[in-house]
Amino acid sequence: MLIHFVIMKRPFNRLWSWLCVACLSFCLAACGEDDEEDFPSYITDFMLVSTDAKGYITTVTLDNGSTYHVEAQKKMTDYPDTTLSCRANYVLEEGRLTLYGVGKVFAPKPVPASTFVLVQNGVPYYGEEYIPRDLMKVVSMWKSGGYINMHLGLMTTGNGVHQYAFCEDSPGHYSLVHLRPYADAESYTEQIYMSMPIPEGVEELTFSVYTYDGIYTRSFDN
Q1: Residues 148 and 216 in one domain
Q2: Are residues 98 and 195 in the same domain?
Q3: What are the φ and ψ backbone dihedral angles of 73, each rounded to 5 degrees?
Q4: What is the domain extent for residue 190?
Q5: If you average pLDDT over residues 62-75, what whole number do you get?
Q6: Do 114 and 207 lie in a common domain?
Q7: Burial (CB count within 10 angstroms: exposed 0-12, middle 13-18, buried 19+), residue 123
Q8: Tens of pLDDT along 129-145?
Q9: Residues 148-159 pLDDT 10s
């Protein structure tokens, strides 16, 4: 299967696909029925969310490996019988975790560099030299729960949809693919969160992001 990245030449023409989503919200919980109720001091962090056959969240696993049951809170998602990498707002008190907002982060599996095709003006360009590497900022990057999690900064004006993917450049080395839409420019920094699933059997790996200061690379092992 080939992964196509299409350069759009007309401003505001959007390409919607699974590659375009940097952060997809799937569940927002109300903080209380009383508008005057004090909103709790919550934690915002990555977690793994498991759901049942109806899409209700049953358990969450925090970055530190601790798992909590939350099925009584009846938080529903569009993703039944699965485990998702998410960012969430929660409160942890006396061993009980309460969810206040959950959002699924961009977390597709990495694909080989040979599967990418850059399409410009209807002409396909094959080869690793054509893989788009538009620049990002790296705020932080770490490993947890079978994922490489990253907090990135995107310089943008909010025009168009950015396309992303994770690329396996060579055995054990992975990188971020990023194509900026033609209509967008660099004005302010948008916070972007992503998680790359670590392929089964990989014990050590490096991950790279093309940044304004050069290629940022981190090494990870078990």
Answers
A1: yes
A2: no
A3: -85, -10
A4: 107-221
A5: 89
A6: yes
A7: exposed
A8: 999 999 999 999 999 98
A9: 999 999 999 999
